[in-house]
Amino acid sequence: MLIFFAKRLLQMIPTLFGVSLIAFLIVRLVPGDPVLLLLGERGGSPEQYKEMQINLGLDKPAYQQYFTFIIKALQGDLGDSIVTKRPVLSEFKELFPATLELGLFALMIAISIGIPLGVLAAVKQGKFLDYFFMGVSLLGYSMPLFWWGLILILFFSVTMGITPVSGRLSVLYDFETYTGFILIDSLHPTVLREEGFKPFLSGLHHLLLPSFALSTIPLAIIARMTRASVLEVLGEDYIRTAKAKGVSPARVVLVHALRNALIPVVTVIGLMFGSLITGAILTETIFSWPGVGRWIVTSLNARDYPVIQGGVLLMASLIILTNALVDFLYTVINPRLKE
């Protein structure tokens, strides 16, 4: 097991180098000069421009800048933001809990709705509910996230006034955060003693709409995968044996079939983490969610090279590490995959 996991970790190294190189090159192909943006509309004098270029390390050839970035990254230093002058790693640590909270809550929504819909569609194969649920899941998978998010804001926030438009918490509440997760920190004894459950409910209220928007595509994938997996298991001999013994249909599906059908579904759920992290970039931008995705988009507009390079590299590392962990757990479930 450990050898298998070690091999997966070694395979991460060339992938991460490739990601770092692509991020480095693409950000420099985007029109715009970070030095001119910092100097303002008038641009300053040529001397000021040259001095700032040297201070930022942008006066060196591109290959030297890349090797400097890689050497520092291997030492745990991703540089400082051009705009805020703060370490990129520190800013990432502050903002990532917001992205993780959004992604995990979206995954909970996708699992809690997608698996029951997939099971019900499999049981009702060829009937109206089957076609309806799979049609809705196909529609959800096909909708662009930026369009779907705007539609949800327009309907639930602007028209109905049910949910907030943006942010993580109402401006009425301000408390010290310990973990960075609003739903956890709002349940701290000090906060509960002073404000009760109002901050928690406010955080949950702000989280519902963006997490539902983000969960749409994973929900559709999980529902369709669950349906296909359950249908495959329902055709096995031991299922027919259980039916012949007089086991109730509900027990056959929920106990005998679903337990084995969930193996490939669990794998898909693990791999959904990557799509949730990448999808969070659009979701956070649309809903003004103060997470890593919005941070990278804002930095892209400011041509903040260290933030874009470091942020993309850190996100890619988390996604690749999660995929490796899913592969490892899958071999625990099915040891034949190690061969």
Overview of this protein structure:
With 339 residues, this protein is mainly α. The chain has a domain at 88-301: MetI-like (MetI-like fold, Orthogonal Bundle). The protein contains 14 helices and no strands. Helix 1 (2-29) runs antiparallel to helix 14 (305-333), helix 5 runs antiparallel to helix 6 (128-142) and helix 13 packs antiparallel against helix 14 (305-333).
Summarize the structure in short:
By secondary structure, this protein is mostly helical. The protein has helices at 2-29, 34-39, 46-56, 62-74, 88-123, 128-142, 145-159, 182-185, 189-195, 198-234, 237-244, 249-286, 292-301, 305-333.
What is the topology?
Layout: H1 2-29, H2 34-39, H3 46-56, H4 62-74, H5 88-123, H6 128-142, H7 145-159, H8 182-185, H9 189-195, H10 198-234, H11 237-244, H12 249-286, H13 292-301, H14 305-333
> For the CA atoms, what is the radius of gyration?
24 Å
Task: Determine the strand fraction and express it as a percent band.
Answer: under 5%
Unreliable spans: none
Q: In total, how many beta strands? A: 0
CATH topology name of the domain at 88-301: MetI-like fold
Summary tags:
mainly alpha; single chain; 339 residues
